[in-house]
Amino acid sequence: MKKIIILLIGVFSLYACEIEDDGPTLIYNFAPITGADFPEHFTTGEIYDFPVTFIKNNSCSAFAGFDISREINGNTRDIYIYAVTKEAESAGCKTEVTEETQVLQQITITGSNETEYTFHLWEGVSEETGKNSYLEIKIPVKNTDTN
Description:
elongated, 147 residues, Immunoglobulin-like
């Protein structure tokens, strides 16, 4: 009898515990990039930091980081950059468009004089085509021993 009572108490205590998280749900979005500050050329082996400006669409959005993907096609380095924002799912957000600048850090440059970096900065989804739209900036690489 004692075993049945202990078993029932154990089962009922499991039902009394809820595992739901009542905290706010975070939503991650891409923010349209409006520009970046790049040099006229890169030097092989150098590490660069770039200020990147993007648009936040409401008062609840906070910068979460950059999403970066790279493709190497011969002497071309294609770098796709997305600004990521996060916001708590709540009704108290004010719709206000603001620009913010964050620094994209630690981009190491590789290649030779024939190498070119093409940065594809995500601007949003085109209303006409429904496809991603990018601001493209091309930067050549120069070796330190070449002027």
